[in-house]
Specification:
about 200 residues, ten-stranded antiparallel β-barrel
Length: about 200
C-alpha cells in the first residue's frame, strides 16, 4: 500500500515535469521562440538614435582646451580625430591623436545606443592610463545633444569614483563640441571641425 502511494506521487511528479510544470506545481511560462527572435532582432536593429551618430563620422581637426583650475586660463592644444561608423551603423569608433602635457597622446572612443536600455553608452581608453572609462546617458534636442555620466578614479589625487560628465553638442554637419566635467567643474572642451 505504501509503495503504491509513493509510486502515484512519483508518477504525478514525472508527468508534471513532462508537461513543463515546475517542481512547485506551477506551470512554466509558455515560451514562444518566434516572439523571442523578433524581440532580439528589434533590440539589435539600428534606429534613429544610431543614425544620429552619423553626425560624428569623418576626419576632424580638434582644438582642445584644458582647465587644471576651473577659474584659471585654459591650455590649448591641437589634435586630429578619425571617426567611423562600425558594425552596420550600430556604433561609432574614434581614433583621437594629439598632445597631453607636452607628450603625444592617443585615445580611442566607442559610442553607441543600447536599444534594450534606451541609453547612449560610451567606452574610452587612452595611452596615458590603464583605466577603461565607461559612461551612459540620454539625448535631447533631436539627438543633437548627448549627455553621458560616469565615475572614474583620479590617479593624481587618489580620489575614487569621481563623478564625470561628457556633453556632445552637434552644431552643424561640419562642427561638434565635446565638453567634459569632473566633479561638476568643466575640465575640457574639444571643438571638432571637419577637414
Amino acid at each position: 500500500m505504501k509503495s503504491e502511494v509513493f509510486d502515484e506521487k512519483a508518477a504525478a511528479t514525472r508527468t508534471g515535469r513532462q508537461r513543463g510544470e515546475a517542481k512547485s506545481g506551477s506551470a512554466k511560462p509558455d515560451i514562444n521562440k518566434e516572439e523571442m527572435m523578433k524581440k532580439a532582432q528589434a533590440a539589435g536593429t539600428p534606429g534613429p538614435a544610431h543614425k544620429a551618430l552619423d553626425a560624428f563620422v569623418g576626419n576632424w581637426k580638434a582644438e582642445v582646451k584644458c582647465w587644471m583650475d576651473p577659474n584659471g586660463e585654459a591650455s590649448v592644444n591641437h589634435a586630429t580625430a578619425t571617426i567611423k561608423s562600425i558594425l552596420g551603423g550600430r556604433f561609432v569608433e574614434e581614433d583621437f591623436r594629439g598632445e597631453m602635457m607636452g607628450k603625444p597622446f592617443t585615445g580611442r572612443c566607442l559610442l553607441g545606443f543600447d536599444n534594450s536600455k534606451q541609453l547612449y553608452k560610451c567606452v574610452w581608453i587612452d595611452d596615458f592610463s590603464t583605466s577603461i572609462y565607461t559612461s551612459e546617458g540620454k539625448a535631447d534636442s533631436g539627438n543633437k545633444v548627448i549627455t553621458l555620466e560616469g565615475k572614474s578614479d583620479c590617479a593624481a589625487t587618489g580620489r575614487k569614483d569621481v563623478p564625470r560628465k561628457q556633453v556632445y553638442r552637434v552644431l552643424s554637419a561640419d562642427k561638434h563640441i565635446l565638453e567634459m566635467f569632473n566633479d561638476g567643474q568643466k575640465s575640457m572642451e574639444i571643438t571638432y571641425t571637419k577637414q
